[in-house]
Amino acid sequence: MSEFKPLVFSGVQPTGNLHLGNYLGAIRKFVALQEKNDCMYCVVDLHALTAQLVHEDMIGQIRSITAAFLAAGIDPKQHIVFNQSQVPQHAELAWIFNCVARIGWMNRMTQFKDKAGKDREQASLGLYAYPSLMAADILVYRATHVPVGEDQKQHLELTRDIAMKFNMDFMEKIRPTGLGIDITVGDEPVHAYFPMVEPLIDGPAPRVMSLKDGSKKMSKSDPSDLSRINLMDDSDAISKKIRKAKTDPDALPSEVDGLKGRPEADNLVGIFAALADKTKADVLAEFGGQQFSVFKPALVDLAVEVLAPINAEMRRLMDDPGHIDAVLRDGGERARARAEKTMTEVRDIIGFVR
Ligand code: AQP
Question: What is the residue range of the motif 'HIGH' region (predicted)?
Fold first, then answer.
């Protein structure tokens, strides 16, 4: 793609209990990527205000997401772990991107439609502008790769559109600064300041569905706690939720094709495959022809085996909030230095007086 130095960036909102979807769709990928890449992982607390302004325990939620990052295996010394509000440059760049993005682009965002619901007039302006802040989160570090679940795909396409429009609109101003690089987008040569980010969505579980409804994604904000497995759930809760998970009366098929039209069965097999680091075909080779009464207990054992150590480490870390805060402060300081470098350049490109 480009000669931009590869940099991985991703964020998680402190909006409630982290669940298996967040873990399999995002956090586990964060851990895998840190081996070969420079990575920045952010608790995006400014985003948490978009759907609900007042949070009873914002500090606790931020610490809990940070604890999940660390418990899952992210190394905050080698990489950067921080919370978004410590780096005001995110909000500054988001304002500039609000002026780059077009209303027509924002109107197409399906997550806004889902989250705003029927009473759109009552949704916050922040919820509407959320993708523009997300683009700023990524591009304020000129990050190149973003591991996310499938639900974020459209926002990353918008991030590319914003980067492209900024690059094109300011092309003549970027060139004399010597800050840009030549990239090719399609067949077009572009003198770019911002890279075209690559979403990293593939993985065994890009979209984990609700345990109560196989057509809805597993979500922190689902009112039913039985719809999700939380990283803080103990083994009894995990067992209860999997036992109560919606299924159909048929036995599991022997081939992946047989999962078509059976969203709940497909979801449970997908979760098993992701937790076991196997394919769905492997799982069906083992459980094809078996009833859920056999499959569910095996899934409970596997989920507890994978999640119990993370759960225990999260609890241990949460007992030492001073340590978590120190990690965030250190990460925030390093992130601010990087973000300020970009913003100094962006201010120069735009032509603000220093
Ligand atoms: N069900 C899911 N399957 C796979 N990946 C998922 N992610 C979220 N849900 C699933 C991924 O987790 C990362 C962090 O998500 P987030 O908290 O920043 O926002 P979200 O996507 O809005 O997650 P939730 O759980 O649905 O939260 P609420 O209910 O607050 O909106 C992202 O990479 C996301 O793709």
Answer: 14-22
Q: How far is CA 52 from CA 14, 95, 110, in A?
A: 11, 20, 19
**Which two three-digit tokens encode residue 162?**
């914003």
Sequence-distant (≥ 6) Cβ neighbours of residue 127 within 8 angstroms: 50, 51, 112, 115, 116
Would you say the CB of residue 22 lies under 6 angstroms from ligand 1? yes
C-beta of 218 in contact with ligand 1 (< 6 A)? yes
User: Does 67 lie in the same domain as 35?
Assistant: yes
265 and 184 both lie in a single domain: no
Query: Any catalytic annotation for residue 115?
Result: yes
CA of 136 to the centre of ligand 1 (A): 18
Give the residue ranges of the annotated binding site for ATP. 13-15, 21-22, 149-151, 208, 217-221
Per-residue pLDDT of the chain (354 residues), as tens digits, is 447 889 999 999 999 889 999 999 999 999 999 999 999 999 999 999 999 999 999 999 999 999 999 999 999 999 999 999 999 999 999 999 999 999 999 999 999 999 999 889 999 999 999 999 999 999 999 999 999 999 999 999 999 999 999 999 999 999 888 888 888 888 888 889 999 999 999 877 889 999 999 999 999 889 999 999 999 999 999 999 999 999 999 999 999 999 999 999 999 999 999 999 999 999 999 999 999 999 999 999 999 999 999 999 999 999 999 999 999 999 999 999 999 999 999 999 999 988
Residue 113 known to be catalytic: no
Instruction: Please check whether residues 166 and 297 belong to one and the same domain.
Output: no
As a dihedral over the C-alpha atoms of residue 32, residue 37, residue 41, residue 47, rounded to 10 degrees, the angle is: -100
Residue 36 lies in a domain: yes
Bridge-based pairing of strands 198-200 and 39-43 is: unpaired
Q: Is there a single domain that holds both residue 260 and residue 273?
A: yes
Domain extent at residue 290: 225-317
Does residue 215 belong to any structural domain of this protein?
Answer: no
The DSSP result for 197-236, as a single string, is: -EEE--SS-SSPBPSS-TTSB--TT-S-GGGS-BTT--HH
Same domain? For 143 and 271 the reply is no
User: What is the tally of structural domains in the chain?
Assistant: 2
Catalytic residue check, 220: yes
Say what the pTM is.
0.94
Choosing from 29, 217, 241, 296, the catalytic residue is: 217
Site to probe by mutation for ligand 1, drawn from 18, 109, 152, 231 as the one with most ligand atoms within 8 Å of Cβ, is: 152
Which is the catalytic residue, given 153, 165, 173, 220?
Answer: 220
Nearest ligand 1 atom to alpha carbon 16: 30
